[in-house]
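Backbone Fold Data
Goal — fold tokens
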Amino acid sequence: MYIIFIRQNLNYNSLSEKITDLETETQSNINTLAENLIQTQSNMEKHQEDLKDEFNLLKASAGEDFSGIIEDAIKSVVTIRTDSGQGTGFIISDEGYLVTNAHVLADKYGNLASNIKAITYEQKTIIADFIGYDGIFDVALLKISGGYDSLKLENSNNVQIGEKVIAIGNPLGLQFSVSEGIVSNIHQMGTSGINSYIQTDAALNPGNSGGPLINKQGKVIGINNFKISESEGLGFALESNYLKEAINTISQINLNQILIE
């Protein structure tokens, strides 16, 4: 009887160990399955975003319809208003850093205007902190509180003459107006004396200064700067590579950091 009891006890312990191992294996399989489901869901969401981007690009390329691009980009554009006038700016980082033309912030005497405000697409008026400016490229860096979706800068070396673009701005006080055109020329000389400007026939008027010039991928290829007043269809935007250089120079001097990699 003792031997039988020992054998039964050994069999019970062995069976208990197998059950425990089976439970551990089952739980491990469940965990793996759950992780795979989460990863699959994440991949599906990313795929849906990729499809949305491709669809917007297809609309912009084939149908000449920028509506999908505009719907996303315009939320990152702001109206810049001072006691002396107004212009346009756009957000370049999710932390609320934004850029505009330095001359937008100057009063009639060339001094920095006081009381700089940014008006978002949702019509929220926010006091903007002045960080610094680059006088050579006419670029100013500002900061507003809160979190935002930002616009991405394109490598302006990839810009091609003839490609379609849109300009978003506030011409003559008409907030968040959009005009369409093409790139007429690249590497044009501007007021800086450097061949750093994109020429476009997209309509630019007073109030467009500081706004983004956007390609069909929804990326910024330049910051709208000036137009030849005596002619129509002769607008100029500082190329995005020079804009990036100006932003990082201002940021390093005043914030001791690089804003755009």
Summary: The mean pLDDT is 83.
